[in-house]
From TrEMBL:
Similarity comment text for this entry: Belongs to the peptidase M24A family. Methionine aminopeptidase type 1 subfamily.
Keyword field: Aminopeptidase, Hydrolase, Metal-binding, Protease
Matching InterPro entries: Creatinase/aminopeptidase-like, Pept_M24, Pept_M24_MAP, Pept_M24A_MAP1
A GO MF term: initiator methionyl aminopeptidase activity
Every Peptidase M24 domain range: 34-263
Complex and partners: Monomer.
Binding sites annotated in the UniProt record for a divalent metal cation 1: 117, 128, 256
Entries under Pfam families matching the protein: Peptidase_M24
Residue positions binding substrate: 99, 198
Cofactor(s) for this UniProt protein: Co(2+); Zn(2+); Mn(2+); Fe(2+)
Lineage: Bacteria, Bacillati, Cyanobacteriota, Cyanophyceae, Nostocales
Source organism of the structure: Anabaena subtropica FACHB-260
The gene coding this protein: map
Top EC group: hydrolase
Listed PANTHER family: METHIONINE AMINOPEPTIDASE
Protein name, as recorded: Methionine aminopeptidase
Length: 275
């Protein structure tokens, strides 16, 4: 789940602990094992949703399914009630960038570009992931946007290992997006994830001097989530105070994984191919 910078700043910081450094929590082996379970729940739900989406369903239908499955697996929805958000998923269609509120009025149609973002809270830790689904047959341009968004995520993940820097992965994402003719949304970022849904550090998808270039350490857990627009990188927020849309009505796509930093590389905790 993405969140605006000013809202992220209101998010409670991680509980102080000996293994924290500069506000970034390093998870213990026991905590990582729990996060594997919360992330597996998220991956399972998203994999199931990707298989059941069809034209005529509403985003409220998907939300009800996600909440039911998360609770059946012994967790609670991370998003529901978070800063007043009413859904268990964020469901954003076409020009909706992030934070779409599930609704019985939002009917899914053939050709839609549907983003489904969800999280699960299990035994004190969160998992967080997002997928973009091509509903039926989409246009070639939409298909390319979805493909490049997913590729950009993995370009960033491939840079992850202890000793690397956050801007290494940000640069890899930005370069892949730009060479394919799309724009990176800069108003939303990835984040640390663990005891809290949003933790330090902010995980940018473009090169910036706005934040320190954090050196990665084994045991960090990051939600990496590039968001691509087909047109302008800029967004605006609707009157519901949650749904962000593109300013030019262009399509948007997003993918996200919860990723563990290891000494030699990374582990994708929300890997849907393993559930």
């Amino acid at each position: 789940m993405n969140i605006l910078t000013n809202l992220l700043s209101q998010t409670p910081k991680p509980t102080p602990a000996k293994k924290q450094r500069r506000g970034i929590e390093i998870k213990s082996p026991r905590e990582i094992d729990i996060m594997r379970q919360s992330a597996k729940i998220v991956a399972t739900v998203l994999k199931e949703i990707s298989g059941l989406v069809k034209p005529g369903m509403t985003t409220a239908d998907l939300d009800a399914y996600a909440e039911k499955r998360i609770r059946e697996m012994g967790a609670t929805p991370s998003f529901k009630g978070y800063h007043g958000f009413t859904g268990s998923i964020c469901s954003s269609i076409n020009n909706e960038v992030v934070h779409g509120i599930p609704s019985h009025k939002k009917v899914i149609r053939t050709g839609d570009v549907l983003k489904v973002d969800t999280g699960a809270y299990f035994q004190g830790f969160h998992g967080d992931s997002c997928i973009t689904i091509a509903v039926g047959e989409v246009t070639p341009d939409a298909a390319k946007l979805i493909r490049v968004a997913e590729e950009a995520l993995y370009k960033g993940i491939e840079q992850v290992k202890a000793g690397a820097y956050l801007l290494d992965l940000a640069g890899a994402i930005e370069d892949h997006v730009k060479v394919n003719g799309f724009t990176v949304v800069e108003e939303f970022t990835g984040h640390g994830v663990g005891r809290n849904l949003h933790e330090e550090p902010s995980v940018f998808n473009y090169r910036t001097r706005e934040m320190p270039n954090v050196k990665l350490r084994a045991g960090m857990t990051l939600a990496i989530e590039p968001i691509l627009n087909a047109g302008s990188k800029h967004t605006r927020t609707l009157s519901d105070r949650w749904t962000a849309v593109t300013v030019d009505n262009a399509l948007s796509a997003q993918f996200e994984h919860t990723v563990l930093v290891t000494e030699t590389g990374y582990e994708i905790l929300t890997d849907r191919t393993k559930v």
